Amino acid sequence: MCDICSVIYHSDAKHDISACPVRAALFCSCCQIYGHSTMRCPDKAAWQTRVPEFMEQLIPPSIRSHHQITSMTPLNKVNESPSTPLYAPVLEVPEDKDGKFIRATLSSHNIPSSGIKENKRVLEAFGALIGKKVVYLQNETTVAEKQAKKDKKVIKIKKTN
Question: How many structural domains is the chain composed of?
Fold first, then answer.
């Protein structure tokens, strides 16, 4: 394993950094480079430009030019510090018994998968690597079934003569 995926996979197999599946899955939307996530971008200057300072920066440039919007309304003081995000970034995965959604999430990021428990561990390690918390969403039918089992009461009656 290379330095990037040795954190996620525990194997003695070696590969070149250019052939690393984890590195290929990481993409930075700040500097537009594969190899690291947006949350871990080393180019802090590019990260600073992503945080809006004015309300008008939230409007697409085409709409601003069409409506001739030129004012600059400052946003609240909450958004001034880019190091403290307003929300924690998450990676949402529907929960299932077979682990097919976890496998699908791994394959969507071009990360190899194996067993159910190993896939869950790899996904959580990948989430930590890209700076996101993995959240498992419960299916509505599963929640309804659990509630039905909880609400269902069995009453046993003894017959006496």
Answer: 1
